[in-house]
Every structure is written in C-alpha cells, then in structure tokens.
Design goal:
There is one protein chain. This protein has a three-stranded mixed β-sheet, with no helix packed on it. It is built from four helices and five strands; from the N terminus they run ααβββαββα. It is α+β, with helices and mostly antiparallel strands and 155 residues long. The chain starts with 10 loop residues before the first helix and ends in a 15-residue tail after the last helix.
C-alpha cells in the first residue's frame, strides 16, 4: 500500500493517512491479489521492483496464549538457532524480506528473515539500525515532521 507523504506531515498526520489508505484498501478486499499484481505490472512493466516484496508483521502484547473453543494457542520462543535455520524461508515464499516485531512487557523484539541472494547480513543490519533509529526518534517526538527525520542520527 502506498501513502502520500506530500506536504511534510507529522507522524500523527502520516499515520492518519496510512489509516485512510488501509481502510480504502479494505473496501476492495474481495479483489484477488493476482489482479492487483497484474494491474501494477501493466502500468509499470514486468520489472522485479514493481511491487515491494516485504512482509511486515507486528504482534501486540498478549498473555502468551489464547483460547479458541477447545483449542489453546501458545506463543513459543524457538530462540535464535531456529531463526538462523529459517533464513531460507524467503526461498519458499514470494517475500524478499520478512520483518516480525512482537510487543513484550519490556519493549518490542523482532526478527528479520531475508533472501540472502539479494541482501548481505551487513545490509540487513544497516536497515535494522536505520529502522530502530527512526522508530525511536518518532516514539520520543511523534510531532516530528517527516522531513526532519534523520535515520542516521541517534534517537
């Protein structure tokens, strides 16, 4: 989904625009994703970069489990070893980068899985550092204008 950031909005204004974009897209939820991709390819050509292949997940804080009738769902921490082993996940999905953030009582933790033929570990480390810098800055100063963000500055 794309959101217009013209006019140098603050974070609050940008989030309002994102909300509007998401709600508008939700109204068209019955349009098959393949049709959206095909339409984009017609407009932009069949270039690989015509559609970003990034999956961004954010899971809010939970008690660690939920009940659905007779089924109990639990959050299980598999540790870093499994994440390293899952680095090939992007080879069986259509995503180049998968970012998964989870809210915890002491903050937010996250994992990144990426296509290692497209990105080096150093590139992903820089992306994560830039993201955390911008996110930290915005958390401290949500009235900041987008143009004032300096991703390489300390939060």
């Amino acid at each position: 989904l794309r959101t217009d950031l013209g006019g140098d909005p603050t974070l609050r204004e940008a989030l309002g625009r994102v909300r509007d974009t998401v709600l508008d897209a939700y109204e068209h939820r019955d349009v098959p994703f393949e049709h959206v991709v095909r339409d984009l390819e017609r407009r932009h050509g069949a270039r690989r970069d015509s559609l970003a292949r990034v999956l961004f997940l954010f899971t809010g804080r939970s008690a660690g489990h939920a009940r659905l009738g007779d089924v109990t769902l639990e959050v299980i921490d598999f540790g870093k070893g499994l994440l390293e082993a899952a680095a090939d996940l992007t080879t069986v999905t259509s995503f180049d980068v998968i970012v998964n953030l989870t809210e915890r009582s002491d903050g937010v933790s996250g994992t990144v899985v990426w296509n290692r033929t497209l990105y080096s570990p150093a590139t992903i480390e820089r992306m994560v550092a830039l993201f955390t810098g911008v996110a930290g800055s915005l958390a401290l100063r949500p009235g900041t204008r987008i143009s004032a963000l300096r991703p390489d500055a300390d939060a």
